[in-house]
Amino acid sequence: MKDIRNYSLLAHNTFGIDAKCSRFLEYESVEEARQIVSLLTEADQPLLILGGGSNLLLTGDYAGTVLHSAIMGIEVLDNKTLAAAEGDDALCNPDWVFLSCGSGEVFDDVVAYAVEHGYHGAENLSIIPGEVGASAVQNIGAYGVEAKDIIYKVEAVEIDTGRVVVFDNADCEYSYRQSKFKHDWKDKYLVTHVVYRLQKTFRPDLDYGNIRSALEAKHIAEPTAQQLRDVIIEIREAKLPDPKVLGNAGSFFMNPIVEKAKYEELAALYPGMPHYTIDESHEKIPAGWMIDQCGWKGKSLGRAGVHDKQALVIVNRGGATGEEIVKLCKTIQDDVKQKFGIEIHPEVNVK
């Protein structure tokens, strides 16, 4: 267990903001997580539960205590044992594979492990930054797949009591980039493990974005899981900057979901506007497209800027403060609202 005062968070946020927290607590097991919550006092407030920092923007030093998981490990659970424990014979399905992963594991390492061992369903989530615990909190997603599609259970320690609790997928109330951990359960639990349910049968999802065209360019008609993962990594790396080179938190804004009538109004004004149908009443419009239409792609406001290959990404061009990045965020929001009549909201957690 680590317990450090006046700790620099530079290595714990991909925006590259050199801010400090009053106290940093890190746990390597469920037992240490329970020990840590028993030590917390009012002086530790406000708490910040931190993963890899790939979805975080610090606007200054953090006055409270930061909690971080260093619980590692990837374990294949026995279906029959799990079925007996759950009282559900359906879990014996020979096509299903259950991976119990420590919340401190890098999420993409889990995807790589799954692909290597022939466990499928996570390929489209390749190279999303962050840790396993955050996948369950943020409901990360890409290329038509979300973490909720593969999460079976989430194990956690309740901060107020030190109890070990287990949540089913349905308990977490997942929706687009949302979960109960971000609202009703905010700062109430330390995630210790996430159990993912994958399949041995490979059923590739190729219909989102430019996956098919990227495969066709390689003359691949029926990709293997590794080929699909490789292509998705290439697509993401081509349009998303490496945070080690240019500080960023990936997609800064969530793609707004609008009523059908609003979409049709805009589609008449902007023929060919990209969109994704959510249901018969709602459409998702890419925020990056709207930001690009507002002329922000590749532009800067001081030391903060918009990436020249992907307008959804705000970057630290060197030495930018959190306040500078927030100023750019708000300016972009105002421009999108004025041009399209749509409010876009940060996916990034601003502290």
Automatic annotation (TrEMBL):
Record-listed E.C. numbers: 1.3.1.98
Organism superkingdom: Bacteria
Cofactor(s) in the UniProt record: FAD
Subcellular location: Cytoplasm
Residues spanning the membrane: none
Pathway: Cell wall biogenesis; peptidoglycan biosynthesis
Single GO biological process annotation from the record: cell wall organization
Catalysed reaction, written as an equation: UDP-N-acetyl-alpha-D-muramate + NADP(+) = UDP-N-acetyl-3-O-(1-carboxyvinyl)-alpha-D-glucosamine + NADPH + H(+)
InterPro entries, sorted: FAD-bd_PCMH, FAD-bd_PCMH-like_sf, FAD-bd_PCMH_sub1, FAD-bd_PCMH_sub2, MurB, MurB_C, MurB_C_sf, Oxid_FAD_bind_N
Catalytic site positions: R177, S251, E347
GO-annotated molecular function: FAD binding; UDP-N-acetylmuramate dehydrogenase activity
Gene Ontology annotations for the cellular component aspect, listed alphabetically: cytosol
Keyword tags: Cell cycle, Cell division, Cell shape, Cell wall biogenesis/degradation, Cytoplasm, FAD, Flavoprotein, NADP, Oxidoreductase, Peptidoglycan synthesis
PANTHER family named among the record's database cross-references: UDP-N-ACETYLENOLPYRUVOYLGLUCOSAMINE REDUCTASE (PTHR21071)
Family membership: Belongs to the MurB family.
HAMAP family in the record: MurB (MF_00037)
Function: Cell wall formation.
Protein name, UniProt field: UDP-N-acetylenolpyruvoylglucosamine reductase
Native species: Segatella copri DSM 18205
